[in-house]
Amino acid sequence: MSSAGAVTGGGREGLTVLVTGATGFVGSRLVPVLARAGHRVRAMTRHPDAYDGSGEPVYGDVGDPDSLLEPLTDVDVAIYLVHSLGEADFERRDAEAARAFAIAAQEAGVRQLIYLGGLGEEQDGLSAHLRSRRQVEQLLASSGVPLTVLRAAIIVGAGGISWELTRQLVKHLPAMVVPRWASTRTQPIAIDDVVRYLAGVVGNEAAFGRTFELGGADRLTYTAMLQQAAEELHGRSLPILEVPVLTPRLSSYWIALVTDVDPVTARNLIDSMRNEVVQHDQDIRELVPGEPLGYRQAVRRALGE
């Protein structure tokens, strides 16, 4: 356990923080923010020799349990940003990885785990994707290391799979046919707000053992999201027709034709869109003050990137 910067109070400086998925959509933005906040950041990656971001690159692979103890040694806070959505057996892979990471974190004496999961009410019958996220939460918590969970819906930012799917659909199609999931409500959130919340709970004892819901300023149907994205991209709305017979499998093939999102990932994402994912509590704002961006603001920032 590193001696500097004990994990107490709200967001202490000088902690040693390990970020898994450091080269990913969220991790690549979070690492420099943590470094600027005064933390010693370890960026865990399977290819440390090729890493050119902030922090200290360290080797680690959640699919290889023997590789995890070394990067976690002397770490105060570990942030888990890993999932295997593009794999057909992602539920098994994610469970095995989370279980191995939890054991290694406990053995290394980590003081806090932080996990970015997904919104959704369990009584609604969660999709396989969201169900897997909840299982990962449970496995990480089973380590006994205090776990902080942040649950978000669609994260809007350049490079995010959900956003890229939206952007490419409205960019390439003059009109769109969508299934019934398009009328489901969601609460998209800007990547900048997600990073702000993640950084804000690092080392904050008031967040230990708690789950927080994240959301942007707007609650929208997926149809409204597509319309607003089209208006920001093209300056006009997009004709959208909702039909009842378009299955997740058919939708994923259609998406694969007009975007670079692979069919397996697309199908898993679309399957989750039948679940309403909106924020029901605002507790996170007590720990990390500030108003989140609205959807149009988030879209403009994503397009600007």
What does this molecule look like?
- The protein has 305 residues and is of the alpha/beta class.
- Helix content is 39%, strand content 16%.
- The protein has a domain at 16-155 and 190-214 and 278-289: NAD(P)-binding Rossmann-like Domain (Rossmann fold).
- It has helices spanning 27-36, 69-72, 90-108, 128-141, 161-172, 191-201, 222-234, 248-258, 263-272, 284-287, 295-304, and strands spanning 16-19, 40-45, 56-59, 77-80, 112-118, 147-152, 155-156, 176-178, 185-186, 189-190, 211-213, 220-221, 240-242.
- Strand 4 (77-80), helix 3 (90-108) and strand 5 form a beta-alpha-beta unit.
- Helix 7 crosses helix 11.
List the helices and strands and how they pair.
Layout: E1 16-19, H1 27-36, E2 40-45, E3 56-59, H2 69-72, E4 77-80, H3 90-108, E5 112-118, H4 128-141, E6 147-152, E7 155-156, H5 161-172, E8 176-178, E9 185-186, E10 189-190, H6 191-201, E11 211-213, E12 220-221, H7 222-234, E13 240-242, H8 248-258, H9 263-272, H10 284-287, H11 295-304
Parallel strand pairs: 1-2, 1-4, 2-3, 4-5, 5-6, 6-11, 7-10, 8-13
Antiparallel strand pairs: 9-12
By CATH, the architecture of the domain at 16-155 and 190-214 and 278-289 is named 3-Layer(aba) Sandwich
Q: Provide the spatial order of strands within the biggest beta sheet.
A: 3-2-1-4-5-6-11
Main pleated-sheet profile: 7 strands, parallel
Multimerization state: single chain
Q: Radius of gyration in whole Å, from Cα?
A: 19 Å
Average pLDDT number? 87
Q: What overall geometry do the principal axes of the alpha carbons give?
A: globular
Straight-line N-to-C gap: 38 Å
- The CATH homologous superfamily of the domain at 16-155 and 190-214 and 278-289 corresponds to NAD(P)-binding Rossmann-like Domain
Strand content: 15-25%
Give me the strand/helix succession.
EHEEHEHEHEEHEEEHEEHEHHHH
The number of helical segments is 11
Low-confidence stretches: 1-10
Total number of beta strands: 13
Helix content bin: 25-40%
CATH class call of the domain at 16-155 and 190-214 and 278-289: Alpha Beta
Looking at CATH, which topology of the domain at 16-155 and 190-214 and 278-289 would you report?
A: Rossmann fold
Class per helix and strand makeup: alpha/beta
